[in-house]
Design brief:
UDP-Glc/GDP-Man_DH_dimer, six-stranded parallel sheet, 18 helices, alpha/beta, NAD(P)-bd_dom_sf, Rossmann fold, binds uridine-5'-diphosphate-xylopyranose, NAD binding, UDP-glucose 6-dehydrogenase, 14 strands
């Protein structure tokens, strides 16, 4: 099949490369010429395991091309919309500027029978609005959310645990509530209209489902659950999944807060409740909480959309989830302050990690960097190290000191803080080795990743999150 992928950020670049690797002819389209140049050379513009190999193989096979020209989408069977939906600066709602621009740019190049597949995470109700623009071309809009995790993006795209396709339901009664940033046209802007009208009858729902199954043929053949639903459900599956994951993390972090005033150990608590299959141990890692480009923004955008729909009270708990999450960063800072005797002023604090999680160079809403910045704000001399994220962190927070070498970063430190559980820190840094680098004996484990007993046995004061 021939596919176009509009938006070559995290999601789009991985999707384009993965689709080429399973035999499709793919064109990736993005407005950023630097990104397109890098991708065209088979280089990943960000750190993601296995992506570079996949890109290089796709580009050299000739099946994968990249361009800034949206006209190159013409002739594709399926057009994926994979642009970002960041948090608006003025509110917590999703910013749909890029989705609008992608759809409008695509319109003149659509043919009857094409499928436009939305992948971006959007407020529920978006597909119904976009379809009003897509339908006159004879193309069909589906919503096909993506569930990839950074660090596992290639694996998650090629071997998804489920595929969800939302299609138009003629008997559905979508909400008429407007969506901020989507329903209102600004005066003075000329919106492109479809240059080619329908030249054959539009696809039936069965045709569209067959097309989407053909796109994901290896996963479908392997028996991956393939869920066909309506637009609104498909949009909601994505935000509900992320809201659930965020809630699970904040639940265990709330238990950590209780553990801290009772002497309980939240990691043992998580192990014990996690044995109940209905609960499960995954995503019960208490620590400095969640960050990244998805969970924080998605729960806020979900709350904002629920309020627009007059159902704010249904997801009030997500405000609490967010608040608990942010409190844990403050707690980590307080632990460091207490551990070094009440003030970090002019103390050297080593922060192990900058990325919001390991196997990523992404620093968007990184809890660890937030902790580092707060410590710096209290007068500490903060040294940050990270195997992948230093260039990004340096651009955003030039006031911090960055050192590539882990041991150099630890040397003569007054306190070591683990914020991102890279193997280099969590598994490969022994208390004995750390003792040879600095005379301080203070570690704050923001991810509960270390063996507390081992550090204590080596003479260190160990402080975990929600642990005695
Ligand atoms: C998430 C979802 O997992 C993915 O399905 C969705 O498509 C996009 O958002 P991602 O942002 O890549 O993926 O990271 P994830 O692995 O979910 O971790 C999110 C954050 O939660 C990280 O900061 C991580 O450190 C934190 N986390 C995770 C915890 O604090 N505790 C845990 O137990 C698990």
């Amino acid at each position: 099949m021939r596919l176009s992928v509009i938006g070559c950020g995290y999601l789009g670049a991985v999707h384009a490369a993965a689709m080429a690797s399973i035999g499709h002819e793919v064109v990736g389209i993005d407005v950023d010429p630097r990104k397109i140049e890098a991708l065209s050379r088979g280089e990943a513009p960000f750190f993601e395991p296995d992506l570079e190999e996949l890109l290089a193989a796709g580009v050299s096979s000739g099946r994968l091309t990249f361009t800034t020209d949206i006209a190159a989408a013409a002739g594709s069977d399926v057009h994926f919309i994979a642009v970002g939906t960041p948090q608006q600066s003025a509110s917590e709602a999703a910013d749909l500027t890029y989705v609008n621009a992608a759809v409008d740019g695509l319109l003149p190049h659509l043919r009857a029978g094409d499928v436009v597949a939305g992948k971006s995470t959007v407020p529920v109700g978006t597909a119904a609005v976009l379809a009003k623009r897509v339908n006159p071309t004879g193309a069909t809009l589906v919503w096909n959310p993506e569930f990839l995790r950074e660090g596992w993006a290639v694996e998650d795209t090629i071997h998804p645990d489920r595929i969800v396709v939302g299609i138009e339901q003629t008997d559905a009664q979508p909400s008429s509530e407007p969506i901020r940033g989507l329903s209102v046209r600004e005066p003075g802007i000329t919106w492109p209209v479809a240059a080619t009208g329908p030249d054959s009858s539009p696809d039936t729902a069965d045709d569209v489902v067959a097309t989407m199954k053909a796109v994901y043929h290896p996963a479908v053949a392997a028996g991956t659950p393939f869920i066909v639903t309506d637009w609104a459900t498909a949009e909601l599956v994505k935000v509900a999944a992320n809201a659930f994951l965020a809630t699970k993390i904040s639940f265990i972090n709330a238990m950590a807060e209780i553990a801290e005033v009772t002497g309980a150990d939240v990691t043992q608590l998580a192990d014990a409740i996690g044995h109940d299959e209905r609960i499960g141990r995954r995503f019960l890692g208490a620590g400095i909480g969640f960050g990244g480009g998805c969970l924080p923004k998605d729960i806020r955008a979900f709350s904002a959309r629920a309020e627009e729909l007059g159902r704010g009270e249904s997801v009030t708990f997500l405000r609490e989830v967010d608040a608990i999450n942010l409190r844990r960063r403050e707690r980590a800072v307080q632990l460091v302050v207490d551990a070094v005797g009440g003030s970090v002023f002019e103390k050297k604090v080593t922060v192990l990690g900058a990325a919001f999680k390991p196997h990523s160079d992404d620093i968007r809403d990184s809890p660890g960097l937030d902790v580092a910045v707060r410590l710096r704000g209290l007068g500490a001399s903060v040294t940050v190290t990270d195997p992948a994220a230093i260039p990004n962190a340096r651009r955003l927070h030039p006031q911090l000191t960055y050192v590539d070498d882990r041991d150099e970063a630890i040397r003569d430190s007054d306190a070591i803080v683990l914020v991102t559980e890279w193997d280099e820190y969590r598994r490969e840094l022994s208390p004995e080795h750390a003792s040879s680098l600095t005379s301080c004996r203070v570690v704050v484990d923001g991810r509960n990743g270390w063996d507390a007993a081992a550090w204590r046995a080596a003479g260190w004061s160990y402080y975990g999150m929600g642990r005695p």
